[in-house]
Amino acid sequence: MSTRTIETPIGLLTLQADEAAVTAIRFGADGAQDASPLLDAAEAQLREYFAGTRRTFDLPLAPRGTAFQQRVWAAPPGSVPAPCTAAARPDRAAVRRFWYVWHYLKNSVSARPANG
User: Fold this and answer.
1) CA 86 to CA 92: how far, in whole Å?
2) Kindly report the CA angle at 60 between 58 and 76, in degrees rounded to 5?
3) For the CA atoms of 102, 107, 108, 113, what is the dihedral angle to 10 degrees?
4) What is the spatial distance between Cα 91 and Cα 100, in angstroms, rounded to a whole number?
5) Rounded-to-integer distance, Cα 57 and Cα 68, Å
6) Cβ(46)–Cβ(60) under 8 Å?
7) How many C-beta atoms surround the C-beta of residue 88 within 10 A?
8) pLDDT value for 57
9) Predicted model pTM
10) What's the alpha-carbon Rg for the chain, to the nearest Å?
11) How far apart are alpha carbons 27 and 24 in whole angstroms?
């Protein structure tokens, strides 16, 4: 597994790849700067995208995640329900807990005065 952190207009992104495909792109820094032809291509395509000269990507992708994440990523664009809808399903207790915590934190932060 190769890892590389790059600086972008939306912040630091950490790219991960195995020998065959990009396996993850995450916000934040990992610190690693591994040599990899696939990461070179991913970095170049992301830079082109942020420069406005690329609209599509032609990288092999093999994202790794939970079974739930895999189902969401495999869904056709526009077919994934909103998080609140997914959280309401009885088989999604963990999603429901996350949604409630996120909603609480969002409302708590927005209710605080900017200076303290």
Assistant:
1) 7
2) 80
3) 140
4) 16
5) 24
6) no
7) 13
8) 85
9) 0.61
10) 18
11) 10
DSSP annotation string for the chain:
-EEEEEEETTEEEEEEE-SSSEEEEEES----B---HHHHHHHHHHHHHHHTS-S-----B-----HHHHHHHHSPTT-SPPHHHHHHSTT-HHHHHHHHHHHHHHHHHHHS-TT-
Which of 49, 60, 4, 57 lies closest to 28 in space, CA to CA?
A: 4
User: Do residues 4 and 14 lie in contact, with contact meaning Cβ atoms separated by under 8 Å?
Assistant: yes
28-78 residue pLDDT tens: 887 788 889 999 999 999 999 989 998 888 888 888 888 877 777 777 766
Each residue of 78-88: pLDDT tens digit? 665 555 555 55
pLDDT value at 97 more than 70: no
Q: What are the b/e assignments for 54-64, b being 16+ CB within 10 Å?
A: eeeeeeeeeee
